[in-house]
Write a structure and sequence with these properties.
single chain; alpha+beta; seven-stranded mixed β-sheet; three-stranded antiparallel β-sheet; 10 strands
Length: 235
């Protein structure tokens, strides 16, 4: 039986960090105790505005890094689940020059560390791990696909519960898609008591292009319909 459940294949911490950096529409830059909100990322994500380099590497600007900086990003579920915060990413390092939101060129940051915080705990990710990780093909399309599923095909989402193992508890009052990545779809099961449970529905193989996502989701729905028919025959 395929491992439909909470422990199915999922992105590594490095993949999560890379996807959040790729898809983020805003971030908070903290220097000298000053918080600056950056909202105009022009679809390029923070990596289009921040150049991360190893302490052993020269900064392209050619100046010595000396100003501590912290970049804060949040990963928010695009669907109206009860608890929408999925993760936080904090990057720390040193700036080669004072940061300003009016800067039009890439800001050079000497990498210190990257911290991912989510419901599973805290994970530190190195610069080498970030560089070695390809962006998830769903990173920038996930929000549109999940909101489309909820807004246009909401009746199909509860059907996917047929694939969840162990079986959903009887007090489940709502199910919504929580996340979509190259490895599969995550559902958020909300209970009457206020307790939430997340379940992974994995794809047979990881996606390599965003165009593969819709057929894979349709395949999950088809599998759920078959499971529903089988359960009906056994009752």
């Amino acid at each position: 039986m395929r491992p439909f459940g909470p422990h199915a294949a999922r992105p590594t911490p490095a993949e999560r960090v890379r996807s959040i950096l790729t898809a983020a529409h805003s971030m908070t830059v903290v220097t000298d105790g000053l918080h600056q909100e950056v909202h105009r990322l022009d679809g390029t994500g923070p990596m289009g505005h921040i150049h991360l380099h190893d302490p052993s590497e020269e900064c392209p600007a050619g100046r010595t890094a000396r100003i501590p900086v912290r970049l804060e990003l949040t990963d928010i579920a695009p669907t109206p689940v009860r608890r929408r915060l999925r993760a936080r990413v904090t990057l720390t390092g040193l700036l080669s020059a004072p940061y300003t939101t009016e800067t039009t060129t890439s800001t050079c940051v000497e990498f210190g560390q990257a911290l991912l915080e989510d419901h599973e705990g805290r994970s530190f990710v190195t610069l080498d791990e970030i560089r070695a990780t390809d962006p998830d093909p769903m990173a920038t399309s996930e929000a549109n696909m999940l909101t489309h599923l909820v807004d246009r095909h909401a009746e199909l989402v509860p059907l996917l519960l047929r694939l969840v193992r162990p079986r959903p508890e009887r007090d489940t009052v709502r199910v919504l898609p929580l996340a979509l990545d190259r490895y599969g779809l995550t559902l958020r099961l909300e209970h009457r008591t206020g307790h939430d449970r997340d379940a992974r529905l994995p794809f047979p193989t990881p996606l390599t292009h965003m165009d593969q996502a819709a057929p894979r989701i349709h395949a999950l729905i088809t599998a759920a319909r078959r499971a529903s028919h089988t359960d009906h025959l056994l009752t």
